[in-house]
Amino acid sequence: xxxxxxxxxxxxxxxxxxxxxxLTAYAFIAPLFIMLFAFVFFPVFFxxxxxxxxxxxxxxxxxxxGLTNYLSVLRNPSFIFSILNVLYYxxxxxxxxxxxxxxxxLLFNNKLPASRTTRALVFLPAISSPVAFxxxxxxxxxxxxxxxxxxxxxxxxxxxPANENWLLSTTYAFPAIMAMNIFSTAPYFMVxxxxxxxxxxxxxxxxxxxxxxxxxxxKFRYIYFPMLRFTTTLVVILGxxxxxxxFDQVFVITDGGPAxxxxxxxxxxxxxxxIYDIFGQSAAASFILFxxxxxxxxxxxxxxxxxxxx
Amino acid sequence: xxxxxxxxxxxxxxxxxxxxxxxxRREEGNVPTVYRMGRLKSSLLQxxxxxxxxxxxxxxxxxxxxSFRLSIFAGFPVDLNPFSRTSISNFISNFNYVWxxxxxxxxxxxxxxxSAVVVVSSVFIGALAGYAFARLDxxxxxxxxxxxLATLMIPFPVITISEYVFMVKLGWINTYQGLMLPQIASAxxxxxxxxxxxxxxxxxxxxxxxDGLRPGQIFFRISAPLAKPAFAAxxxxxxxxxxxxxxxxxxxxxxxxxxxxxLALNFFKGANGTQIYWNDMMLATTISLIPTFIIYVIFExxxxxxxxxTGTKG
Amino acid sequence: MSIEVRDLVVEFKGVRALEGLNFxxxxxxxxxxxxxxxxxxxTALKCIAGLLEPTSGEIYIDGRKVNGVYPSERNIxxxxxxxxxxxxxxxxxxxxxxxxxxxLPRNVIDEKVKNVASRLQIDQMLKxxxxxxxxxxxxxxxxxxxxxxxxxxYLMDEPLSNLDARLRNEMRDEMKQFQNITGKSIIYVTHDxxxxxxxxxxxxxxxxxxxxxxxxxKKLFDDPDHVFVASFLxxxxxxxxxxxxxxxxxxxxxxxxxxxxxxxxxLSTDGSVRLPQSVIIGIRPTDFKYxxxxxxxxxxxxxxxxxxxxxxxxxxxxxxxxxxIERRDENEELLEFSKGRPILLEVEPQRLFVxxxxxxxxxxTEVREFKI
Lengths: 310, 314, 372
What we know:
The complex is a heterotrimer of chains A (310), B (314) and C (372).
Chain A: H1 2-13, H2 16-50, E1 53-56, E2 61-64, H3 68-75, H4 77-108, H5 115-122, H6 124-127, H7 130-140, H8 146-151, H9 173-198, H10 202-210, H11 216-227, H12 229-244, H13 248-253, H14 265-274, H15 279-298, H16 301-306
Antiparallel strand pairs in A: 1-2
Chain B: H1 2-22, H2 39-66, H3 85-100, H4 104-135, H5 141-150, H6 156-170, H7 176-180, H8 187-199, H9 202-210, H10 215-226, H11 228-244, H12 247-252, H13 261-269, H14 278-310
Helix pairs in contact in B: 2-14, 3-14, 4-8, 4-11, 8-11, 9-10, 11-14, 13-14
Chain C: E1 3-12, E2 15-25, E3 30-34, H1 41-49, E4 56-61, E5 64-65, E6 76-79, H2 91-102, H3 106-119, H4 135-147, E7 153-157, H5 165-182, E8 185-190, H6 193-199, E9 202-207, E10 210-215, H7 217-222, H8 227-232, E11 239-249, E12 252-256, E13 264-269, E14 278-283, E15 288-290, E16 296-305, E17 309-316, E18 319-326, E19 342-347, E20 353-356, E21 367-371
Parallel strand pairs in C: 3-8, 3-9, 6-7, 7-8
Antiparallel strand pairs in C: 1-2, 1-4, 4-5, 9-10, 11-12, 11-14, 12-13, 13-21, 14-20, 15-19, 16-17, 16-19, 17-18
């Protein structure tokens, strides 16, 4: 039986020369898949398993409870609130950061003397650790910080009050975190847009110029926008996946407060597991979040059609 | 109809990838003649870029400035020069305090050690697999590659909750191996490496086969040496994400002695209750960012291009 | 026989790239495989090299079946269109790598590399890297790398196609010399008919994964078996006119080749073969003469002046044709004609090629009379 399996595997791999290639390939992907099985695939199954259990690893208090975790999570108003909160956050951040990234890419996609250094500086937030950058932004929004002392006294933005303790305000704390993340992730997506812009063959722009496409608006309307549709879908999807998993910034800056104003699903998941030791609910909430991500990404169906190149 | 749409955009994607990979060898991207612009337009454009760069740099500038000041409060200092003589002595006194606070040198070493191990192993494993997916034909190649890409869609709590439970069971909570191992399998590195290996002409490998190199030898003697830019990009990328990683150490680490820098910063932030001592806080933040910034300055080219390349991961 | 290919079939995802290829390469033969891009010629070469596993069929090198044998153990060497030199190694190491892999002692390697390098005149470049070389030099290194292995046969995949036109002419001579130096079989894949005609002892013409005809260059040109071969070889290509037979009597055949009432031709043959209903008439451009007592009525379009010759473009009915005519005093007026002017051209009937329109094969019959 074993021998038969081995020979049929051999014939699947074909002649000896092809077999050398296949065996090398399996040897090359083996370390990756060992790590993936141990630290990705198996954990996913295991999380799915414990989402149906009352699971407390410390007191060995484990028993099957069916869908109870899912139901109690879905009935928990603070979880529902966190989901709605993060969807609102995602909508605002993805929309604005995508436009901003595109604008930055148009601005920085050139070879002028200033472009290299300035682009490098604009990119700094994207490499800084979210924790460090969050701490700097605690200052930006603190009572004596940048916003209060240097921006609002001079520039009136939507009639915002000039002396607010932003991060302690239930109205403003979440928008402040949104602003910070738009500010810091737009440059990352700018780089992807620049790659997309540079992939447009220069002959197309030249041909278009001869066809009378000269103004910036027309170039945008007839060339950049249609040709960058794939890049935009990519930027939106990566943005969605990132935004829905918002955690570091909220944890460091507001810890979900004030009064739940910045409460997001990952805070809920973290608290269920590490404050209340209810790992089953934590896992169930994670899978609900997974489903939300899948649903949102599947709305970009076109994208999956285009994935066929992989 | 659907076919044409996807064909068209896959052509577009191929072009995109080609540009990205060819820009590995180029200083800047090609600038079409249409972009050639008048003096006025280019000055305006440069002015706009400089303004944006200043806006983006202000928070970091304040961070640096503040670490040269003694005041613990959040206001913007009047004296904007960080390098006067009093400033430097202030810096030294802040530094002595921060460096002596808790286990700062140990936290630093922890971060360096963990990132170094993760970078070396993750890049090596990613390069091997990326090469196999790009160049070796084997049964199941496409399905396995999709499986790798699919891991990018999984939200991390789905994985980390179980990983935490495993670490508890294994007794690996609060250990280096517990900290490092879950960070090693990286779909991004596999993807980046694969894309780069695909750009190496396959005839070079054909020639090597005829010269008697086996597939494994071809990787080590021919293809890997030709993929140095991809190794650089993927190493830097892994370094940054490991150095900045917060959520997994937050789950995994329980004693301050095992902290990495992001945990240390968060700990430092809460050290004086709700009052943050901004001078010390900013100095700690500055020194935690220094390694990333140095690497970024040296390898900016590979870094930006690596992000563009992984940015097309899908 | 140094290489035998038997019933070679290659399928990529259900699409057949090669449909049962059979050919032999004799010892010391320079065999050219000629065909348009996508005809499967490179695929066949890769199968022989072992870089591609055929779906079915056998390959023998020196009488040994090599299916499944690793490329380096097939005793062949290959030269590539894009040279495929190892960019990170010096020229010396590029040439030496194969011997290093075999574990030959260093002094033997050194001697062989230097020997080959001096024969191909690249001994001044051994310390350079591939990107410092010109195209011609790079391809010489490619040849040296192949030669140092002393193989049974050389496989060359369009080795001159990346060179500019002038260098290609020079290198063509060197390729011929290369065969003289090595005295081994060469399979040379190309889409360039001039390379094929000048280099090949024998040419295998391929189209759509099949061999259309194989023969010596002169024979292929003078006596093509197939419409494809007839139109692929020769520049400008052979003029082809499709025609339907409307009547055949004792006086010969009457054919129509267009919709206009005048689109008729008349021909008679030696009678050895009966012509089918649909035929294709082929005439080489060089077989036309501009002559007042010509047997072909045509309409002048324009001329291209090439120097000593002209390409005369004209129409017969709706067929656009080309004649290559040597300039002489009596036909100098051609340069002055304007479009639409009726002209007469002469073709010797024996020079006509007749093909069966159905299977595109040549009908071997001698034409006695011809008139349009």
